[in-house]
Amino acid sequence: KFTATSNVQAGSVALARPWGADGFAAFLNAELGGHISAAGFTTMSGNDPRNARFHEYGSKGAGANASSRSSYQLNATQAASYPLATIFGSWTPSYSQ
Fold first, then answer.
1. Which pLDDT tens digit goes with each residue over 3-37?
2. Please, are residues 34 and 7 in contact by the beta-carbon 8 Å criterion?
């Protein structure tokens, strides 16, 4: 769940930006507040988000905008390749307990 304080302008925050040429992030079933920009992803240090491996699936909320980020969308089969066990291994994040 991505939230912001009331003083953050709507659409003013990128979902992600590639710090390096090989940036990677997948956002699955995220609830995105209205502060997330329609473009979702932006450049950083000359690294273009289209060259990074940014993915999104099943976002909802005011900041969800699959049509503006269509090239980053995964289908259900692709999203299924990101189960928590694969991502975290045996580690259980404290927020999930």
1. 999 999 999 999 999 988 778 899 999 999 999 99
2. no
